[in-house]
Amino acid sequence: MLLPVVSVLFLAGCAVTAPELDRSDLMEDLSVQGIDLPESEMPRPSGELTLDEAIHQAIWRNPRMQQAYAKLDLTAADVVEASQFSNPSLSLSVMRPEGGGGNEYGVGLAWGISGLLMRGSRQEMARSHWESTRLQLAEGMVALASDTERAWYDAVAARQRAEVQRLESRAADLGARLGERFYDAGNISDLQRAHLRIRAAESRLKLEDSRQREREARLRLAHLMGLPGEVDDWELPKELPLPLAEVEERQALVDQALEQRLDLRALDHALDGLTEGVALVRRYRWMGDIEPGLEFEREGDGTRLWGGGISFTLPIFNQNQAGIGRAEARLADGEARRESLVQAVTNDVHQHFERLAHHRNRFGVLQDDLLPARELATERLQERVNFMFDDVFDLLAIKQEELAAWQKTVAALGDYWQARAALAHAVAGELPGGEPGSAGTFATAQLEHEPTAMDHGSMGHGDHGAMDHGGHGGMDHGDGDEGHSGMDHGDHGAHDDMDHGQGREGHEGHEGHEGMDHDDHGQQDQGHRDHSNHGHGGHH
């Protein structure tokens, strides 16, 4: 009975505990990627949600991380199992003689030792698999952080675009309401009125689409943070940061990615385990299960027999060819997957590099060329409207086009930041150029100003110098006619039925105004005249 006792003691001394995740190693892997793990439980977000807070929320709450941790625990259990020996088997027998006499009793104890011979190799394979899974956990955190970063920029861009679209819709709505007044006064046709109403309706539809995109972007961000549907307790910045310094060293980024990508490192550890597996199966291809054993028998006449034996498989028909083929195929598949991943990583870096350069250049053209040209066109048309060379509806139309250009620029800037986040993930590290926001933000708040009241008593017939259109102040007229500060000409009693734009009663353009004093609106005795198409079209 000595062998079972020794075996139990030996097995107890060889017990292996499951490997535990070293948080310092994990933090070191993530710090290279520019990610910091939260130190403690994250409170639910409130107030303005920064990018770092959004990433920390995602890493702490997203179920993807809990699944990754559970997978790591399963792999740790595999390490323990690989270090353990198979249990011995105990056999008992009772033989009763046919002619009578005492029974024969037998006791046998056998233990397979094949696992003992392969224990070291199996442990190496299991630990390589565990290390590969640990790196996959870290890569999962990096991927989640990148997804959250892109969702955050998308949500900020959606909010800023919706705000610019709101201003554009107000301009279109103002044109439609002014058109109704002009139509009631008989100064525009049904076709012109219909065009204004169509433009206002289409602009409101665009506004609704913009707000829907903003809601969807916020919901997606909340989902990534592990807070699905919770979008009411936190806010986002109103403006996107401006682009940072241009990224130029493409090949250096490729080399950085191939050196630092955690998924490549994880696959390398998995290949180490597969290589060890091929060596193991080749080394013991001829060996089946070997079971030494101890036997004890007591004859019916009381005679006791002690002895031992061994059993093993003879490799006559099966030399484990299938096992060797499977191990080699797994290794070949792993090597092919690594080469495929190397090519995919290289391609990703090139693709995201091109996208980043494209969106940066596109934003530069929009910001430096298109927007200034649009603003200049609006200012010059404002001057023409002031002198009654064009009408107010042309001014409102070109203002809408300018705001649409602003909205397009915001979209290009949002695409830039998403491309930059994707490139940073592809190269497994932070990009040069500084921190987001260090170059300032793309301001659109100046597009909206309080309307400036117009002093009719201090301007001549075409002099609108008291109005501030340079700051786009005329675009903010509230949601009703009462919000049009200085806009309601119904209070200019002497102008009630004066139609300067159409030149009624022989008054054509400026020629029909000789002798009329516009510096004193209250003293004109022209009767009931229609002022709705007065030369102060710029103010409208």
From TrEMBL:
Gene3D superfamilies with a match to the protein in the record: Outer membrane efflux proteins (OEP)
Classification via Pfam families: OEP
Superkingdom to which the source organism belongs: Bacteria
Biased composition (Basic and acidic residues): 461-533
GO molecular function annotations of the record: efflux transmembrane transporter activity
InterPro entries per the UniProt record, alphabetical: MdtP/NodT-like (IPR010131), OMP_efflux (IPR003423)
Region (Disordered): 453-540
Family to which the UniProt record says this protein belongs: Belongs to the outer membrane factor (OMF) (TC 1.B.17) family.
UniProt-recorded name of the protein: Transporter
Species this chain originates from: Thioalkalivibrio versutus
